[in-house]
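Example (one chain per record):
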Amino acid sequence: MRQIVPYALIFSGILMSYLYLFRIEDMPIISLFIGTLLQSLAILIHILETSTARKSVITIPFAMILMWSTLFINVFRFITPYGNDLIFEISVARHTLTSGWNPLLIQKHAYFASLSITILPSVITTITGLPIDDIMPSVILLLSIIIIPIVFFKILESVANDFQIRSMATIFLAVNFAFILITPTLLKTTFALIFSLFMLLSLLRRGAKWSLLSVVFASLVITSHYTFALLVGAFLFIGNLTTNFLMNRTLTTDVIRFSILYIVMLVTWLIYIAWSVFFTGVSMLEAFFRTLTRLIFEERGVETTYLFSSPRPITGLLLNLQNGLIVIGVMYGLYNYLRRNIKPHAEAFWLAGGLFSLGILALWLFLPALSIGVDTFRIYYFGLPFLCFWLAFLMKKLLMSHRYLTRLFVMIFILLLLPANLMLSEYESDLRYVPSSALSTERLFNYHSDTYRTEMDEPLDRWIAKNMRPGSSINVDLKGFFALANAPLSANIDVIRVGYPHYSSSGYLLLHRFFRDYQLWSSSFRHGRILRPYKEVSVAEIFQTDNILYNSGEYILLAR
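Predicted structure:
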């Protein structure tokens, strides 16, 4: 009977939260806070209950519900809240479906190196008959909710005997996964994560059938997302090295052979299909080692960016506390290894994964050659299964403490984990939680520059594809670039981001209402963006002397 309580609480919390989102103009914000609190209480009670439970069936459905709740908060009011990368991926998928696929297309767009957004969506569309625009966002949500908790929990059965640790790790993964999806994450990264989990599940099992499956899933990882595949390859190499030599624990011959085969397949794929990506990676590697050996940091790394809003101090404190506890958890795992309390194969391999993830994140922070080329969240995405396990490993130890304050600290941390990952402290400036009318003009413009498309974007895309000459170029800012994300492939139009409004070499310029009414023009630079033109431009002069080809109120296309 007690096992029903967490489900009752989480469903009540979901109902309260989504009632607020459905009637956001009328409902008080306290409804959202209460709904989140009820879900947090459900998480805490479920974790405490699993100390005596022994059935995975009670954890896996709970993790699915939790992941569904947190993910759909991000898509409840908006169709495509993942930023312009999702639009590019849909554009590539459309192009593949209508025009076919061949390796030469990579010269036009590097996304064609990822079969997870070219071949896979086309196959699903052909089989199901569903529009490809609906499949792309839907597949990531459904696959994430259904597959990830099940596969991750099954993997941990080979890593840890403790049921509560496996349950906590699965729940931590569900909560943190929602946070990652409010960062500029790609669909192909999610596909790569899913396939890599299947690969690890097969790799940790014995038998010819599992060995064959591990190779199949390895090929899917490699062809899904080259950055993620490179991280997996580096982990397999360093993980084998660490486990076999530094940890003095011998992995099975199958794992070693598989790692060699994976690296050979990865290099072959990158050279044959994605050769431009391969040589970019080689250049990054050269710069990385040059920086490492000289220890000269002449260039600063890329700052972390958030899709919705940067965290306030309280949220930043909680997220950094979680990161600190993850580091402590991995170090505690290493301490247990030194005490010979780590299982000789799977758990030692998982420890190597945690150490590798922390190491690569540390290198990202301090070495610009790495940070300029790879977004931190893609690294975190890769390391999430390892890091969540070692966080749960530490939490289990603290919950077993005889000190009341230690157990109280863990309970408070678990209660605050979901609100922190949903960034609720920034609610009044977050378009997920407040109506558009509640935001400042600059804030709303910032969202529409790379986060949310308007209902005016698609008609503009269609008009461009129908009326503009292929090979033409249009000068735009970030908002215009986001609106015309499909144009480079669908209409063969060059969309060029510029720092202030001026005409392209073909004589075209795209403006929008934010520039017309407020003189706002969004431009990116190394560590952020600015919302004003680099150079003063007279709005009145532009509209008096040039021809307006298209005017929807939201967008104005001018021709010289």
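Caption: Confidence is low (pLDDT under 50) at residues 294-309.
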